[in-house]
Amino acid sequence: MRTIDKRIEPHIKLAAVLVRRAPPLTLAFDARCKSRLAATLDNGEEVALLLPRGTVLRDGDILVAQDGALVRVVAAAEAVLRVRAPDRITLTRAAYHLGNRHTPVEIGDDYLKLEFDPVLADMLKRLGATVEQVSMPFQPETGAYGGGHKHGHDETFAEDYAIAQQVFDEHHGHDHAHDDGHDHSHCGDAHHQHHHHAHR
């Protein structure tokens, strides 16, 4: 079984012919968040993914096997909710409420996409959005989620939070005391949580 252990950085452009010849590896979002994975290429070959921890693969990424062969990542179609709204403010409110729940969301020009969830679908409809269940590739924002489903309790989230809080303090002064021991990566403190979502 071949081991795939490198991703070519997106800014490095490969010859189109090499990309075309690379066998596809079709993976759903959950699988693209795992750095250790047994997977099957579209041609039926079984491979082992051993990528750096925290790697989140995107559609079109090129991976390199230990024997130097290339593999092209394809985002699989999966059951998602596509959310649209009659106006931008409704769509923005929908994104805000989803963000408050630490739900991975793909943000498009005029749509949001999230994993199928009937409870969230109901909430979104009440906000005035239209929701349809479709089968499409899912590529959520990954900044605040690191490896996917840690729901905000990881280092990347804490770093994002610290940056947002620092900017907020620079602009608004230190009008509230900070407890240095406070763990910003946990979401129990509603006061801090609102700053995080309002100022990202």
UniProtKB/TrEMBL annotation:
- Taxonomically, the superkingdom here is Bacteria
Family annotation (SMART domains) = UreE_N
Which residue stretches does the UniProt record annotate as biased composition, category Basic and acidic residues? 173-191
The record, for HAMAP family, names: UreE
Does Chaperone show up as a keyword for this record? yes
Q: Which family does it belong to?
A: Belongs to the UreE family.
Region annotation (Disordered) maps to: 173-200
Tell me the function of this protein.
Answer: Involved in urease metallocenter assembly. Binds nickel. Probably functions as a nickel donor during metallocenter assembly.
The family database entries (Pfam families) matched by this protein are listed as:
UreE_C, UreE_N
Start and end of every UreE urease accessory N-terminal domain? 7-71
InterPro entries the record matches = UreE, UreE_C_dom, UreE_N, UreE_N_sf
Q: Which UniProt keywords apply?
A: Chaperone, Cytoplasm, Nickel
Q: Where in the cell is it found?
A: Cytoplasm
**Listed name of the protein:** Urease accessory protein UreE
